Structure to design on (477 residues):
């Protein structure tokens, strides 16, 4: 009956599980996420309860509810194996997912059964809880799920791990989750020119609490390298490689470390080893592409007339791996940018255009991704298509997104340089002066902006846009 269905829905919304954690499918590439979780189940030696629970949710999002149920059965087996004395406590998220999936399959009686199981367990665990209980491991499980759904979820993930740590400050797994969230947030804020509390201490603490976790050791090494403490970082990489020489998650960070150190061949050897284990990893293919690109730039730098066949082969390999990376992970923005730029290097301009276009259509771009796009597309117009006016147009678009980031600064620098060259070379037209005026205005340099707009108006007296910008500026002083 409709009444029981409505009351069922009300009860479901009170459960703590993946269905109530606002994890939106449009923010991820579901096929790639499913593959990633599968790889982690296979290669990371830890209890896989959280992975099977998350996999059940991903299967549901892909409309395969039967498969979702079978993953929940696997989660239950893991719970029995790892926590035989705390089955109810450890099953709350699993049971919540069961209830939701049965509800979506219109098997309402079974959904109600699982809601009752959660209710009864919550009452046993706490006198006040009804369908919700704030257990540290549930906060942590939510944190791991949020990390998998991408950049806009990282802050929430950090908060979840913080809540989990309030009750169990020395729990190695919670500390690892917190450190990963901090590392990724720092990377994010860095791009957006924001200061955020550094991840180095949480990473060190996570490594101390679990010296076997080479995944975290790899991240710590990369962070030390960022802080120009590369020798210290390399000691962690070497120690980790001794402990787990075949773990793809460590190998990918080791390879990134050596590529950034300038040892592209060593990085390539490590990546080839990792890719033999997880052949479809978008991360690894992207890293391979970056290594071949590094070798190309190195060849051009050190050889006055680099052999054309070597140049073409490095471009080909780079394109090959970047292409696999975006086929596997369709929302992988930086790999799209790298691929488009590599097509341009190989003078395949139509393919470059098409890849730039696809990159801009990705639905989860942050503002700094868009600024990054305008910067690279501006460069493409300027250096490859030899169109300065188009380059100016795109750099300006990047600048008009008025939020600070490295990419916006790059747009501003490139634009400044290009406009001044044109004006000094006597090629400056009204648009150039107006654009320079816009830059000055955005930088708060109003007098310089007025001067530029005056020159623009002198060259193009009837232009409404220039006249109104000039008028506004004069009134604001």
């Amino acid at each position: 009956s409709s009444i029981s269905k409505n009351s069922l829905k009300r009860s479901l919304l009170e459960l703590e599980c993946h269905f109530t954690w606002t994890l939106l499918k449009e923010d991820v590439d579901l096929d790639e996420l499913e593959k990633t979780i599968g790889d982690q189940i296979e290669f990371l030696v830890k209890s896989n309860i959280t992975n099977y629970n998350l996999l059940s949710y991903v299967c549901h999002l892909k409309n395969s509810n039967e498969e979702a149920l079978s993953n929940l059965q696997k989660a239950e087996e893991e719970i029995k194996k790892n926590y035989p004395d705390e089955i109810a406590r450890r099953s709350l998220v699993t049971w919540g997912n069961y209830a939701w999936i049965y509800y979506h399959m219109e098997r309402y009686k079974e959904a109600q059964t699982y809601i009752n199981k959660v209710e009864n367990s919550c009452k046993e665990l706490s006198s006040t809880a009804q369908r919700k209980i704030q257990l540290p491991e549930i906060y942590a499980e939510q944190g791991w799920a949020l990390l998998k759904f991408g950049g806009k979820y990282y802050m929430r993930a950090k908060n979840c791990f913080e809540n989990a740590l309030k009750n169990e400050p020395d729990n190695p797994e919670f500390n690892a989750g917190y450190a990963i969230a901090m590392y990724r947030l720092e990377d994010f804020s860095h791009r957006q020119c924001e200061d955020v509390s550094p991840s180095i201490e949480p990473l060190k603490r996570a490594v101390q609490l679990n010296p076997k976790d080479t995944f975290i050791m790899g991240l710590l090494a990369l962070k030390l390298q960022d802080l120009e403490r590369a020798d210290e970082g390399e000691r962690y990489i070497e120690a980790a490689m001794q402990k787990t020489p075949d773990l793809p998650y460590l190998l990918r960070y080791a390879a990134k470390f050596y590529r950034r150190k300038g040892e592209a061949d060593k990085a390539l050897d490590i990546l080839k080893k990792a890719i033999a284990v997880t052949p479809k990893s978008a991360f690894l293919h992207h890293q391979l592409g970056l290594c071949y690109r590094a070798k190309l730039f190195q060849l051009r730098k050190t050889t006055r007339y680099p052999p054309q066949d070597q140049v073409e082969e490095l471009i080909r390999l780079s394109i090959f791996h970047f292409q696999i990376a975006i086929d596997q992970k369709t929302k992988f923005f930086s790999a799209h940018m790298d691929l488009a730029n590599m097509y341009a290097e190989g003078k395949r301009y139509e393919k470059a255009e098409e890849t730039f276009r696809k990159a801009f259509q990705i639905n989860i771009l942050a503002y700094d991704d868009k600024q990054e796009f305008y910067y690279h597309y501006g460069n493409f117009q300027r250096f490859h298509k030899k169109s300065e006016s188009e380059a100016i147009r795109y750099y300006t678009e990047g600048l008009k997104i008025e939020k600070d980031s490295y990419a916006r600064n790059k747009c501003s620098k490139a634009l400044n340089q290009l406009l001044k060259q044109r004006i000094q070379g006597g090629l400056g037209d009204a648009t150039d002066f107006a654009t320079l005026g816009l830059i000055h205005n955005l930088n708060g340099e109003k007098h310089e902006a007025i001067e530029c707009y005056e020159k623009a108006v002198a060259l193009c007296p009837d232009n409404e846009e220039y006249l109104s910008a000039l008028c506004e500026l004069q009134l604001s002083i």
User: Anything to note?
Assistant: Residues 282-302 form the longest helix (21 residues). The CA atoms of residues 454 and 470 lie 7 Å apart. The mean pLDDT is 95. The radius of gyration is 27 Å.
